[in-house]
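In the present case, backbone shapes were mapped to integers, as reproduced here:
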Amino acid sequence: MLKHYFLEKDVNLITRIRPSMVREDWFAWHYSTNGEYSTNNGYKLSDALVEATEHQQNIINLVEQRQWKCIWKLKSSPKIKHFVWRASKGALAVADRVHSRGMYANMLCPACNMQPEIVCHVLFLCPMAAQAWELAKLPTPRNGFSHSSIFLNLHHLFVCCDSNKTEFVTRRAFPWVLWHIWKARNSFVFEKTRQSIYSLVELAQDEADES
């Protein structure tokens, strides 16, 4: 009966509750001292939930603002900064974006033909991109790059950029790695040429050194 209405983890918690043998069950409002519901404490709970949501959103906004500042403070060319900014907004002409604008597009990634072509996949998760990040020696997140959040993936890269645990040259190169992954994707889509991942990473690191 319980398994029909609740998740298994909740069923385990419910079955651990020992019923009282000396008094009848009764309904109680958890958010008042006497267990009784009133319109007043109902409104108080509603206000508290709204306030908590607004506080959480304010924290998210602050983190996002910091990330925008990090993008424009990158020690790279304006072209690279603009590209990273566009990537952060998901404003790259991948199949998913083209399709969302009402145009026909083959949704599969042209480079691997395994997953839908979204920005996260192209820049972080496609086998070509994954190999580039491995060769660039930038630490990946413990649970891997996010499949849906550019914000989280860029946040990880900026954290690596600020960490002394990562070599300085490696830290500086990540914007160029992103850029050259995107260029390699475009070369394959429009020119049907595959770039060596080794040369991609080497070129990204050389350009980072020259900046």
